Automatic annotation (TrEMBL):
Domain Malonyl-CoA decarboxylase N-terminal positions: 91-176
Any one Pfam family match given in the protein's UniProt record, by short name: MCD
Spans traversing the lipid bilayer: none
Protein name: MCD, Malonyl-CoA decarboxylase MCD
Malonyl-CoA decarboxylase C-terminal domain sequence ranges: 179-418
InterPro entries: Malonyl_CoA_deC, Malonyl_CoA_deC_C, Malonyl_CoA_deC_C_sf, MCD_N, MCD_N_sf
Origin species: Bradyrhizobium forestalis
Superkingdom of source: Bacteria
GO molecular function term, any single one: malonyl-CoA decarboxylase activity
Record-level GO BP terms: fatty acid biosynthetic process
PANTHER family: MALONYL-COA DECARBOXYLASE, MITOCHONDRIAL (PTHR28641:SF1), PTHR28641
Amino acid sequence: MLNDIRSGRIAAPEFLQGLIDTLTQRGRAVLGIKPDRDAGEDRDLELLGEALLSRRGEASGVAIAQSLLAAFERAAEPQRLKFLSSLADRFGPDRRAIELAIAAYQRKEGGDGARLEALHAVAEPRRQELIRRLNLAPGGTSSLVRMREVLLSLLREHPELEAVDDDFVHLFSSWFNRGFLVLRPIDWTTSANILEKIIRYEAVHAIQDWDDLRNRLEPPDRRCYAFFHPQLVDEPLIFVEVALTKEIPGAIGPLLDKSRQAIAAREATTAVFYSISNTQKGLAGVSFGNFLIKQVVQDLARELPNLKTFVTLSPVPGFAGWVRRELKSEASAAIDDDTRQAMAAIDEGGDIAQAKDAITALAAYYFLKAKLPSGKPVDPVARFHLGNGARLERLNFLGDASAKGMKQSYGLMVNYLYALEHIEANHEAFAEAGTVMASDKVKKALRAKLSSRDLVLSPHTNSQRKISS
């Protein structure tokens, strides 16, 4: 077989997968586990976990890991909850071992380095090693991502599982760091398997059909890029859709219009990131978007030197909800009498165009003044792009006149500008002091009488599967 690999008749990934399958089969034989029995028999997940941690043999370990993951996939919610709860307590840190290690450290038994290492070793929850061993099974990474998706669905009603989730995030952040991610362009010639997932996972501007997808991928003034991981070969982790234009757009409709006239890529001066979608719920909280945006900017700048401007056209999914909450508050610093009257007219069926000044002023306040207790902007999309080093460039009234756009933001969309020479300085200002970098035009939209004090809001914001470019 090694000769076949050297000659190119067998690809290395195929060889590795075959090796893993062979180990699994041998492990099953050692343990007396039959595949057909596994498929129809519910196995005790906790006991399988203990068995996996106790094994030293690689073949048997892989077999047990595969059996546990398969059993979890088949299990009903009560059994899944029971196993995840066991990760929180049964597979947590060994408290007695920690106490002994602390006592040894305090008695100064051995060198400082050795004592600290011993304390660190026993302080790590057993579940971390269990998750690592589960990852050795064929398809283990994908199964663990799905397991965390189940975990996230249970967190609200079972906050005791938060420590387990922290460990998943800790491990995933290592396994899915930038060094392992591969940026690949997606175009109309990409395999149908991946294109179907682009349609399914698009979370910002829904793709209606294959013609709609073709309109976003095939023309010369359109681009799409995705990050992939070696263990999830045909699963894009996050993807961004890009329009090449001659100016900064203020509305999404013309960009998605199937009847629009495409331009040659060399004629474009502006790259517009109009949709960014995370695809794996189980990887929520593991950041890819900042790397994706910056690398795509660099790649496009190299490919097309004529591009001078890099911006987003971003929705503002929480804006309308925030406005409604502020209107209910008599003490709101964001609402004056004129604004309240203008917004009341909209609720009564009036022409929204009459409320343009009020909505624009509210939007300026929302981005520049509305803060979380942490001091960061309340808007999650703003936190993402400002944290990446972008600048809030423009507020676009009725940028999205669709039913969804009107419901979530009164049609408001915004542009974030990625100026290559200022990205790092903007990022530092935001990270260190929470400074919102914004254009003079945005700042002027903030009415003087509404800018006297900051508004601190609750940290409870809607969790978005999408990043919403």
